[in-house]
Amino acid sequence: MKPEAPPSPAIRFAGITLAPGYRGAHAASYLCGAFVTIGLFAFIAYFQPFLLNENLRLADGVQGRTLAGLNFGNELLALLLVAPFGALADKVGRRAVYAFGFLWMGAGFLLYPLASTVPQLLGCALFFSVGVAAVGTMLGTVLADTPAESSRGRMVGIAGFFQGLGAAVFVFVLGHLPKQLVESGMDMHAAGRLTLWIAAALCVVSAVIVFAGLKRGSPSERAPALPLTRILSDGIAAARANPRIWFAYLLQFGSFGDRVVLGTFLALRLQQAWLERGVDMAGAVDRARVPFVVAMVAGLVTALVVGVLLDRLDRVKIGVAAMALAAGAYFACGFIDDPMHSTLLMAVAVLLGAGQIAAIIAGQTLLGQEAPRDVRGAVFGLAGICASAGILFTNGVGGWLYDFVARGGPFFLLAGVNFVVFLFGLRLMRRRAD
């Protein structure tokens, strides 16, 4: 593949100094891709209860563990494919893998409404997760490639803002679409199918944008891939030498588990609550989206505030505060017997969104600050494993709790996890003060 002639190394975009060879169009195309990527991830997680109720007609008592099983399989397969897609991107270029991922996801969105049994839905979900792995890997890889080192923090912040905005916009807009279609005369099943197929069309458009707009080729400087044993040994050794890295790992575990409860179990709980009150499926999807969007918007605002505070305060203190906030919010949400109490629910949604995003940002920036340069790759690799472990743990245990114990079970679970991380961080602060 013939590389592009490098432009001036001092090109800036939205206050970001770009790496040599990158232009403003490359950065803009990436931000568009980031907006759509996380938007589609959030939408399919939010929309899965529609498929369980309308397409599969599953009883409420098995929906929690069914969703958990789907998400567990998705995350496990995507985790296994991250390294192969990263290696492929080094050979054929980032834009080709990113576009491929979007097209694969588009095919997955076409298949989803055709599933009528749990095995068929699982097959669709696993198929879809191949595209998720491709675009998810490129989301982080292109973000690392694009900015100069001096602007890396600003680029991460702007990308995070676009990702959060995408989650809020896609759930808000596509979550309302089935209700509009039903009110226009379309039957429920067809409305859900058309909504998913519109998402598929957006995938195709996004594939064109990233393929045309991202930089051709691959960066000439590539970090060698580390084997898993090296990641584990070096990552654990770094944490033993510096307990602040342990805390960052725990923040990743807890905050990504929070994301599962917020994106999966909160949506399921709210939609089931509306169905029990006689609202049809399209109406349930429409009404349940509001608290979710409120949480996403709260996360956006929090990201801006925390981004400023992280440069002024101890990042461990920010992480401790985030875990305390999230623990209290999940504990309160678990006690809400009637999710239709809108005022209380909205207040809790604000706290959920704020605590989750603050913990994610604090953990990532703490890693960047504390990770030794000679083992930085291993430290960030182990942090990614901790994030995936949090997702797998929350899906595996949370789904069982939701169906067999109480619908508030996953919320109490994460309240406990966040509280343990909070105590670890508090102990770390006290040891540092002594």
List the helices and strands in order. EEHHHHHHHHHHHHHH
Please compute the radius of gyration using only Cα atoms: 21 Å
Percent in helix = over 70%
Order the strands across the largest sheet as they lie in space.
1-2
CATH architecture of the largest domain: Up-down Bundle
Main structural class: mainly alpha
Count structural domains: 2
Return residue spans where pLDDT drops below 50 for at least 5 consecutive residues: none
The CATH superfamily of the largest domain bears the name: MFS general substrate transporter like domains
How far is it from the N-terminal to the C-terminal residue, by CA? 57 Å
Could you characterize what this model shows?
With 434 residues, the protein is mainly alpha-helical. It folds into two domains: 20-217, Growth Hormone, Chain: A (Up-down Bundle), CATH 1.20.1250; 226-434, MFS general substrate transporter like domains (Growth Hormone, Chain: A). The protein contains 14 helices and two strands. The chain has helices at 24-55, 60-92, 94-111, 118-145, 152-174, 177-183, 188-213, 228-241, 243-276, 281-309, 315-334, 342-370, 376-404, 409-433, and strands at residues 12-13, 16-17. It has a two-stranded antiparallel ribbon with strand order 1-2. β1 and β2 form a beta hairpin. It is globular. The termini are far apart.
